Amino acid sequence: MPSIVAYESSSIDWCEENFKYSPVIAEYYNTVSNVVFFLLSPLMVYLSRSFASNSSWHIHLLWFCMTVVGGFSAYFHMTLSFLGQMLDELSILWILSVACILWFPKDSMPLSFRGNRWSFGWFVMALSTCCTVLAFLKPNLNAYALNSIGIYILYVMYTSLRWCKTPIIHRLAWQTVLWWFLAVGCWLSDRMHCSFWSDLGFAYLHSMWHVFIAMASCHCIILFAYLNVLQEVPEKRPLLKYWPRNNWQIGIPYVLLNSRSISAKIF
For binding Zn(2+), which residues are annotated in this chain's numbering (predicted)? Predict the structure, then answer.
């Protein structure tokens, strides 16, 4: 039985040809494409200064988690090891957990937790711990389970937007959905139609998944951060902006807050 840290000890192998460009990197483009996480995370820390100082510094936890996801994903695709696979998938699970603890809409919480985000946070942590253990039982199903969580997030987004009538936020939601569909489309196509893409000489759709899902994640985090402030401390008057140019209303979204109001309390 191969070691869990051994090269190609994972049962998962993506469409890109292994060790084609480097003797030490199994999937070169799938590895290098994770640089998008390392570029976006510090940029989002910079753009989220207003939100962090006037509402909650916890938003920086998510940008840090994105860096961790990028690092573990790069390690997995570099080695295709079982350890790399689990670190990659579990880091995604836990960034979803942190995001839920911070900004899961109160109206969508189970009735027993509404109004008590602290208790809800402990529930999410306990559930995530159980899922972490279960992930080792059927590791081939982990990626599909994580993508199914994405479908639920889209549902929560839809229900949350029913009370928000701001057009620019609905536009942000559609942008989030577009990035997510592009990402999942690349993921599924690379997984299910590898021979087709290999025949075309383009077996790199999974590397594009990394770029698209990173963009979808940034959009989704900012969307729920905005909705959280709008619902819990509307006097903050959140403003949605885009980098590098706001008048494009496309690019990297971020939230500006009124600094003269009291700070929001997450817990």
Answer: 77, 206, 210
Letter for the amino acid at 169?
I
CA-CA distance, 64 to 41, in Å (whole number)?
7
CB 231 within 8 A of CB 240: no
Q: Would you tell me how many other CB atoms lie within 10 Å of the CB of residue 161?
A: 16
The stretch 170-193 carries a mean pLDDT of: 96
The most distant pair of C-alpha atoms in the chain lies apart, rounded to whole Å, by: 61
Over residues 223-255, the pLDDT tens digits come to 999 999 988 888 888 999 999 988 877 899 999
Segments in 104-247 forming alpha helices (H): 117-134, 142-160, 167-192, 194-199, 205-232
* CA 187 – CA 209 distance, rounded (Å): 6
Angle between helices 205-232 and 142-160 (to 10 degrees): 40
- 29-49 per-position pLDDT tens digit: 999 999 999 999 999 999 999
Q: List all residues 6 or more positions away from 74 whose beta carbon is below 8 Å from its beta carbon.
A: 31, 32, 34
Does this model's pTM top 0.70? Answer: yes
Per the annotation, binding residues are: 13-14, 16, 18, 27, 77, 206, 210
- DSSP 8-state code for residue 20: S
Annotated binding-site members for Zn(2+)? 77, 206, 210
From the annotation, which residues make up the binding site for Ca(2+)? Answer: 13-14, 16, 18, 27
Q: Tell me the two tokens of residue 24.
A: 């030490």
Q: DSSP letter at 9?
A: -
Going by C-alpha positions, the residue among 174, 150, 169 that lies closest to residue 224 is: 169
Domain ranges of the chain: 28-256
Between the CA of residue 109 and those of 73, 104, 117, 203, what are the distances in Å?
A: 31, 7, 9, 41
CATH code at 28-256? 1.20.1070
